[in-house]
Amino acid sequence: MIKINENYLKLQASYLFSDIAKRVAAHQQANPDLKLIKLGIGDVTRALPDACIQAFHAAVDEMANDASFRGYGPEQGYDFLRQAIAREDFQARGAPIEADEIFVSDGAKCDSGNFQEIFSTDARVAITDPVYPVYVDTNVMAGRSGGAHNGRYQGLVYLDGTKENGFMPELPREPVDLIYLCYPNNPTGATATREQLRQWVDYARENKAIILYDAAYEAFIQDDSLPHSIFEIEGATEVAVEFRSFSKTAGFTGTRCAYTVVPKACMAYTDAGDAISINTLWNRRHTTKFNSVSYPVQRAAEAVYSAAGKAQVKDLIAYYLSNASFIRERMESLGYDCIGGENSPYIWIDGKSDSWEFFDLLLNKAGVVCTPGAGFGKCGEGYIRISAFNSFENVQAAMKRIADALA
Ligand code: PLP
Q1: Which of its termini does the chain have fewer beta carbons within 10 Å around, N or C?
Q2: Does domain 53-306 have CATH number 3.30.420.150?
Q3: Which pTM was predicted?
């Protein structure tokens, strides 16, 4: 008799996006003429940068010709892209990362979800709350969570993000082995300073732990004092892995290209205490289970680093950030405390009421869709997330409607 992985039964059904969809559909049905404005889901709305499109087209043309056609590529990514990433995203910022430490993939969602596979099932896992749910659910599937009680898994260590700590949780009070961090943060938009990251790196070095650092929103960082990569912190290559994505940087959410940085110096240990390079383990896992991102997509991603590509990406980010700043300014002028929106496309708003009540109010009275903070964890209760991914015209209209509804 074939048996299931019973850990899947421990997963708490994520009602978040299906509940939102249901409430939105019901509202739309009752108000068929209303044009809803969606500032909920974190998907981009603007076209790929022209430099990427041109490189994409040229690479597709290469595929149309026997002489330049390419079949399977290297699982870790083409050298042209790995070199460009190492040089532009890391070495240019003083982070000592080499091309053979870059693993190109089709998404930071899969990578941040899959990476835990190479660690023991009894690893003690710390996650921040509120949190991008992928880190939690993949550890539940792997059997590291125990059962859920009052909305929290008993085997996970939760690091609370609150208004008081600026949604930058304190170090764990008990020893942990694997720590998930995400800055700029989804959903709160909080960012980490160099000093804050240094404390995490020091903790990981002292405890022989590993930090899985999700920097999917790195491109939104405007403040020059903030680190873009955890590898800008001395010693981080011994204890950290970093996830990056072209999704939000350059509008690749539907095109799919991302990468994970696994430094050769980063070690995990056998039962006997022998150090093993996780670069070797991840290389083994990646080459076994993944068969590379398509050649045209990697050429399109490479174009992000051309002079034209850099300028176009800068404009794209500036567009969303000006939406973000508009949203934040309007919500603050209505008397709501906000964080995020300065170095991040998300504005995290204290709704001064139950998350879902505030969601319903904005939906029913303003025709605007946001995301209730409670869907990201216990500490998200009372908050909503508004995303800057939409046209400025829609954002302006949404904020006018919200102001009228809350007046
Ligand atoms: N990491 C975080 C924190 C995200 O918010 C998202 C997407 O919303 C991802 C990763 C997924 O990125 P990708 O599109 O590369 O899978």
Answers
A1: N
A2: no
A3: 0.97
